[in-house]
Design brief:
Blueprint lengths: L8 E6 L13 H19 L7 E7 L11 H7 L1 E6 L2
Parallel strand pairs: 1-2
Antiparallel strand pairs: 1-3
Length: about 90
C-alpha cells in the first residue's frame, strides 16, 4: 500500500464455528470478528496508511472454508483474516 497510493482494501475476519447457523450481528462472537478486523486496520493506520483506503468487516461464520469442520487443520483454516483488494 505504500507503493500504490490508489490501492484500497477490505480486511475480512473469519471465525471458526462449524455446524452452526449464521451468527446474529449482536452476538459476542460476531463482535469479536469485527474487533479483530479493526485491529488490523488500526495497525495499518498507525503505519501511515490512510483510513479512507481501508474497509474492515467481520464475517464471523458466514464464509467458512469448512462449514462442517472436524479436524484441527480444517478448523484452523476457518479462522483467518483475509485481505481483499478493492481497487
Amino acid at each position: 500500500m505504500e507503493l500504490n497510493d490508489s490501492l484500497k482494501i477490505e480486511i475480512a475476519d473469519h471465525i471458526n464455528h462449524p455446524n452452526s447457523p449464521a451468527a446474529s450481528k449482536t452476538s459476542r462472537n460476531y463482535g469479536l470478528s469485527v474487533r479483530r478486523a479493526k485491529m488490523v486496520r488500526d495497525y495499518l493506520m498507525e503505519n501511515k496508511i490512510n483510513s479512507t483506503r481501508i474497509e474492515y468487516r467481520g464475517y464471523w461464520n458466514y464464509e467458512m472454508r469448512y462449514p462442517s469442520a472436524t479436524t484441527a487443520k480444517q478448523q484452523a483454516a476457518n479462522r483467518r483474516v483475509r485481505i481483499k483488494i478493492k481497487g
